[in-house]
Amino acid sequence: xxxxxxxxxxxxxxxxxxxxxxxxxxxxxxxxxxxxxxxxxxxxxxxxxxxxxxxxxxxxxxxxxxxxxxxxxxxxxxxxxxxxxxxxxxxxxxxxxxxxxxxxxxxxxxxxxxxxxxxxxxxxxxxxxxxxxxxxxxxxxxxxxxxxxxxxxxxxxxxxxxxxxxxxxxxxxxxxxxxxxxxxxxxxxxxxxxxxxxxxxxxxxxxxxxxxxxxxxxxxxxxxxxxxxxxxxxxxxxxxxxxxxxxxxxxxxxxxxxxxxxxxxxxxxxxxxxxxxxxxxxxxxxxxxxxxxxxxxxxxxxxxxxx
Length: 307
Ligand SMILES: Cc1cc2nc3c(=O)[nH]c(=O)nc-3n(C[C@H](O)[C@H](O)[C@H](O)COP(=O)(O)OP(=O)(O)OC[C@H]3O[C@@H](n4cnc5c(N)ncnc54)[C@H](O)[C@@H]3O)c2cc1C
Fold this sequence. Notes:
This protein is α/β, with parallel strands linked by helices. Helix content is about 25%, strand content about 30%. The chain has 2 domains: about 10-50 and about 165-225, 3-Layer(bba) Sandwich (FAD/NAD(P)-binding domain), CATH 3.50.50; about 70-160 and about 240-300, 2-Layer Sandwich (D-Amino Acid Oxidase, Chain A, domain 2), CATH 3.30.9.
C-alpha cells in the first residue's frame, strides 16, 4: 500500500527514479545527476546483467541505415561514436570492417559513395577513413574465398559493453546518484506531484517518491508499464530478437567481415573476432551476428569466408 499524498515524511523524495541498470538506465542516471537532479537507479539484478552485456559490442553509426535515407540518425550516431571513443579509449578500440565486393546487389560506385558519406557525415573524425583494398597478398584477404578479389575497409568501434555500463554508473554515482543493485521496482502509482514507488529485494520493501519515473527496463519495458498502472499509451512495443552464433576462430586478426547484406530483409550478417580479454562466453571465437536464425546464416554467409 502507498502512503497518502500528504505523508512524505520518512520517505525518500527524489527528482528521478530510474528503473533498469543497462546502458540506457545508467546513461540517463548519469546525465540527470550531472544536471544536478537527485537520482536513484534500481536494478533488479546486477548492472549490465541483461541485454547490455550481450550485445555485438559495436559502437557504430549504422551504415546500413544510409540505404534507407536515415541521414540524420546516422550523423547523430557517428557523432556519439566519436564522443564515446574519445572519452573512453581504454575500453573502446577502432574496429576495421572488411566489406568484400561481390558484384551482386549494389554497384561499386554506390558502395564507395555510401562509405564516403559514412566517413564524412559527422564532420570531425578520429577513426581511419575508408580504403579500397586488393585482397590478393593482403592479410585481410587471407580468410576470404578466392573469387573475392577486392573490397573496402571502413571503421567502426568495438567496446567492452558491460564495462561501459559500469563506468557510466560509477560516474552517475560520482555526481550524487544512488545506484541500488539487487533492488526491484515492484509497483508505482502517480499521486499528486510525485510517483510513489515500491522497491525492494527478498527481505525488504520500501517506498520512495519521485517526480520523474524513468522506464529503462529494456525487454521488461511493458511489464514496468503494467506495474505502474499505465494501461493506455501510444508506444507500439515489440520485442526484437538478435542472435549470435559463437564458433571456433575462423581467421586471425581483429578485423570484422561483412558476410552478406540484404536490402529486402534490412539485416546484415557479419563476423566479429572476439579479442583476448573478452568474457569467457565469447572466447576464443568468432561471433556471427546479429541475425534471426542459423539456417539463414549458413546459406547467405557461405561464399565469403574460406571456412
Ligand atoms: C544480439 C544483439 C546485439 C546487439 N548489438 C549491439 C551492438 O553491437 N551495438 C549497439 O549499440 N547495440 C547493440 N544491441 C542493442 C543494445 O544491446 C541494446 O539497445 C541495449 O543493450 C539496451 O539496453 P537497455 O538498458 O535498454 O536494456 P537492458 O540492458 O536489457 O537493461 C534493462 C535492465 O532492466 C532491469 N530490470 C527489468 N525489470 C526491472 C525491475 N522491475 N526493477 C529493476 N530493474 C529491472 C533488468 O534486470 C536489466 O538489467 C544489440 C542487441 C542485441 C539483442
